[in-house]
Amino acid sequence: MKGMIGYVLSAVLLGASLGLQAADDEGEPPRWSLGAGAAVVAPEGGREGYAGYLNLGWRLAYSSPGAPRSYFGLELELSDTFESYRRDRGSDRIKGDVTTAGVYLAANTFMTERVFFRARLGGAYRYLDESHRAGRHQGRLAAGLGLGYSINRRLDLLTDASIQYLGRDARLHYVGSAGVRVHF
Fold this sequence. Notes:
mainly beta; eight-stranded antiparallel beta barrel; 10 strands
């Protein structure tokens, strides 16, 4: 887990460096993106923990003639907690770590020249490792909304709020994240 923090920070710094150096050139928009950042994770009825994430995206070829910068994309997102979340169960205080891999269909809709709205829907596999029981594997549906700011053609700042639901365990799982995304 601690090693992932270094990878996330390196990816963010590299992405910021590449994105800020990239010129807003004309032509075919980049198809791939790589994002990294930090997230707050909390189970329903619990206290938050913190995670790092990496996101690999692929832009689909479709774009609307009325909004040429808006697009749909497929995203693969990996995250891992570096500080455990907590929740109380009677007199017990439970600590937990969660590792998640999710696949999402994302719509990025530009509202102005630089600001865009994000909506994501997909599925997530997660592994919960809680102090009171053995680790559990879960598949969940996930949905999220967010905002983005395009610094230039190659670099975006992102915020997302999402929820994971519908699994064997009925408790909801909340995630709020912020990060940077580089298009290449």
